[in-house]
């Protein structure tokens, strides 16, 4: 990869170094076999059948000819330096083979061979030796332990995928990037069966060099590809993955991602609420939220969304209008649209009146049930469709005609009527729910409609296209430089943690750690009752669990008594804890308790968490995540994304909280987390009191956990 920086402050990465690998002009096959069914024979056979536009050079010291091609006894005997080389030799020979290719001037290699990092420490050491050898020669490596890559637009098949025996990829504009070669081949087979063209595929295998992100990036920058389907088990290189998503945004080419492995973070749940709430999967989704990526749950959904995306219509501010001949289908779609938060506003009343006049027994609200009456006069389908788009203003239209839409007596006229509407509104997404044989569906496909048998699948893809439209309409997040934060040498106690945070724009309530009961009583009188009292000790994190917190302490005598109670509880439950004294703080009244936290993800760095505070953060787990850092507006979006957001906005007559102040505090926390660097493990601020408008937001409790080994 070659890097520079764009005006957005993000990496603008070009992926041209993969061109010799994925669009080669000459290919050497080292370990080539005369048997077209063997791993070393398949690439040769496939490229001969596919009429590769370049030169294929088999290397095998035991043969002078392989599959009717001249074979070469060694890499040194090759007539020219290959752009790409397929390496199909035992693992022990791979390093020497790549070294020889590098000396010959080879630019890239696809390593079929297994026996590297996937088999343990010895294999990992061999893989590192392989990578060092390739880098010494400036070569790019795909794999090892990969099923390879193909680019059927030029007849290149550097792959042993057995499914290619059944047929080559269909022409089309969808790329496949997969960490698993077998699953990449599975997607190829599914796409062929669905009639989808996937001319370019790369299986990245162990990713000792070329990553999944780079494969995606090269495809989105390729003019032959409009959509990338990706399968991932783990993101091994975050920088290249994010760079690919930024390139996809710039090119307006979506990535449809099937990410598996919903494991929990390696976490210190006893030390941090945030770690207990965060998980690999939720953090990963938070990272994706900034980009034009649709994450799917199944391969069927992957194909559905990718197929729909090939129409390249991504409606921002999406809305759905449904034209149906079935009231039941309308109910099904309405239920799912509400569940998926796809707006289905009603038709304007004048338009409803006109449609009712045309078909008195129709239901013109939305869904617009035109009834089977339109099958008697198919011009009505065009009339209804046009009014839905021009009057209803729907960005997406779903037409449910099921089997009726493909029978010979209906299909030609219905397709022609709806095509007029579609052609008059090329910026709208038109999806049809039809059941028919491929030849019956073909006129609708050729007219540019998206076809789905099941109307629920149609709603899902309409939702996805709207998400893409909203993503493309947003600018990429700015990742501005953040000033370093100086952390203490050891994990701080609560009072020190809040002082440190306050110095970086996360204010705390008035408070002080006192060493005697009399000092505590005097300070409480100074700041005003009621007060909160807590044991002050860095060794006691969850104070309430040992009776280390007292609320609503109303007078000086109660402070004195509480002081002794707290010390006694600490001595009884955690006798070895180092005590700093007792913290006395003004008790906030009238705000909404919120939770803010930071968890350092091993891949994506610091991630912010926000939710309602107190016990609700653990009980309800209604929290949202975002990768740090971010600004106040992004913080506000994060805050309002939780289900409990109405409580912050004045639900049921409550005063709305100071969202500007709360958002600024959260944004400041995100910047603090980045500035603190890798020594910061986590932060919990619970609660943060969000006060009524104009009164600010204050941290009432804070825990900072440091990695003292770094």
Automatic annotation (TrEMBL):
<dbReference type="InterPro" id="IPR003781">
    <property type="entry name" value="CoA-bd"/>
</dbReference>
<dbReference type="InterPro" id="IPR016102">
    <property type="entry name" value="Succinyl-CoA_synth-like"/>
</dbReference>
<dbReference type="InterPro" id="IPR013815">
    <property type="entry name" value="ATP_grasp_subdomain_1"/>
</dbReference>
<keyword id="KW-0547">Nucleotide-binding</keyword>
<dbReference type="Pfam" id="PF13607">
    <property type="entry name" value="Succ_CoA_lig"/>
</dbReference>
<keyword id="KW-0436">Ligase</keyword>
<comment type="similarity">
    <text>In the N-terminal section; belongs to the acetate CoA ligase alpha subunit family.</text>
</comment>
<dbReference type="GO" id="GO:0016874">
    <property type="term" value="F:ligase activity"/>
</dbReference>
<keyword id="KW-0067">ATP-binding</keyword>
<protein>
    <submittedName>
        <fullName>Acetate--CoA ligase family protein</fullName>
    </submittedName>
</protein>
<dbReference type="Pfam" id="PF13549">
    <property type="entry name" value="ATP-grasp_5"/>
</dbReference>
<dbReference type="Pfam" id="PF13380">
    <property type="entry name" value="CoA_binding_2"/>
</dbReference>
<dbReference type="InterPro" id="IPR036291">
    <property type="entry name" value="NAD(P)-bd_dom_sf"/>
</dbReference>
<dbReference type="GO" id="GO:0005524">
    <property type="term" value="F:ATP binding"/>
</dbReference>
<dbReference type="InterPro" id="IPR032875">
    <property type="entry name" value="Succ_CoA_lig_flav_dom"/>
</dbReference>
<dbReference type="InterPro" id="IPR011761">
    <property type="entry name" value="ATP-grasp"/>
</dbReference>
<feature type="domain" description="ATP-grasp">
    <location>
        <begin position="498"/>
        <end position="534"/>
    </location>
</feature>
<dbReference type="GO" id="GO:0046872">
    <property type="term" value="F:metal ion binding"/>
</dbReference>
């Amino acid at each position: 990869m070659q890097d520079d920086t764009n005006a957005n402050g993000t990496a603008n990465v070009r992926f041209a170094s993969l061109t010799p690998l994925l669009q080669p002009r000459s290919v050497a096959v080292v370990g080539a076999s005369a048997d077209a069914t063997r791993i070393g024979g398949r690439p040769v056979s496939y490229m001969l059948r596919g009429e590769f536009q370049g030169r294929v050079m088999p290397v095998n010291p035991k043969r002078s000819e392989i599959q009717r091609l001249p074979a070469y006894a060694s890499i040194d005997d090759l007539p020219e330096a290959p752009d790409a080389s397929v390496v199909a030799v035992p693992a022990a020979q791979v390093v020497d083979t790549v070294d020889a290719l590098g000396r010959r001037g080879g630019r890239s290699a696809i390593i079929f061979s297994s026996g590297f990092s996937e088999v343990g420490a010895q294999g990992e050491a061999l893989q590192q030796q392989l990578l060092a050898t390739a880098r010494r020669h400036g070569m790019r490596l795909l794999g090892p332990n990969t099923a390879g890559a193909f680019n059927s637009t030029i007849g290149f098949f550097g792959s042993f995928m057995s499914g290619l025996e059944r047929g080559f990829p269909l022409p089309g504009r969808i790329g496949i990037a997969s960490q698993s070669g077998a699953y990449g081949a599975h997607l190829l087979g599914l796409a062929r069966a669905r009639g989808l063209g996937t001319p370019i595929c790369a299986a990245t295998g162990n990713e000792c060099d070329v990553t999944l992100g780079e494969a995606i990036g090269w495809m989105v920058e390729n003019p032959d590809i409009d959509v990338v389907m990706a399968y991932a088990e783990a993101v091994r290189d975050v920088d290249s993955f994010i760079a690919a998503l930024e390139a996809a945004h710039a090119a307006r080419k979506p990535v449809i991602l099937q990410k598996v492995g919903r494991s929990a973070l390696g976490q210190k749940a006893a030390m941090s609420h945030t770690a207990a709430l965060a998980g690999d999967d939720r953090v990963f989704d938070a990272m994706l939220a900034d980009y034009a990526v649709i994450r799917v749950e199944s391969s069927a959904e992957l194909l559905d969304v990718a197929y729909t995306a090939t129409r390249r219509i991504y409606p921002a501010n999406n809305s759905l209008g449904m034209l149906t001949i079935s009231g039941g289908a309308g109910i099904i779609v309405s239920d799912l649209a509400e569940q998926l938060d796809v707006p289905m506003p009603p038709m304007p009343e004048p338009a409803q009146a006109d449609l009712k006049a045309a078909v008195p027994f129709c239901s013109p609200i939305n869904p617009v049930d035109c009834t089977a009456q339109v099958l008697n006069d198919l011009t009505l389908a065009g009339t209804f469709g046009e009014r839905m788009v021009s009057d209803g203003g729907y960005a997406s239209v779903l037409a449910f005609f099921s089997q009726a839409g493909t029978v010979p007596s209906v299909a030609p006229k219905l397709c022609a009527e709806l095509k007029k509407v579609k052609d008059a509104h090329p910026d709208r997404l038109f999806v049809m729910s039809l059941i028919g044989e491929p030849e019956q569906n073909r006129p609708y496909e050729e007219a540019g409609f998206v076809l789905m048998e099941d109307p629920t699948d149609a709603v899902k893809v309409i939702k996805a296209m709207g998400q893409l439209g909203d993503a493309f309409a947003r600018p990429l997040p700015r990742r501005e430089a953040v000033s370093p934060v100086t952390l203490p040498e050891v994990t701080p106690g609560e009072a020190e943690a809040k002082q440190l945070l306050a110095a970086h724009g996360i204010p705390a309530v008035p408070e002080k750690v006192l060493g005697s009961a009399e000092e505590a009583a005097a300070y409480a009188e100074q700041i005003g009752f009621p007060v909160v009292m807590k044991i002050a000790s860095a060794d006691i994190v969850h104070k309430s669990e040992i009776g280390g917190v007292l609320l609503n302490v109303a007078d000086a005598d109660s402070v004195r008594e509480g002081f002794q109670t707290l010390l006694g509880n600490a001595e009884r439950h955690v006798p070895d804890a180092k005590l700093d004294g007792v913290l006395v703080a003004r008790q906030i009244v009238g705000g909404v308790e919120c939770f803010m936290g930071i968890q350092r993800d091993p891949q994506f760095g610091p991630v912010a968490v926000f939710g309602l505070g107190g016990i609700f953060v653990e009980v309800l787990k209604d929290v949202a995540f975002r990768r740090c850092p971010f600004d106040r507006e992004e913080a506000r979006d994060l805050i309002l994304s939780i289900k409990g957001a109405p409580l912050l906005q004045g639900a049921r007559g409550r005063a709305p909280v100071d969202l500007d102040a709360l958002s600024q505090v959260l944004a400041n926390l995100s910047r603090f987390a980045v500035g603190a660097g890798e020594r910061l493990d986590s932060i919990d601020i619970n609660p943060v009191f969000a006060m009524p408008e104009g009164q600010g937001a204050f941290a009432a409790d804070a825990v900072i956990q440091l990695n003292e080994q770094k």
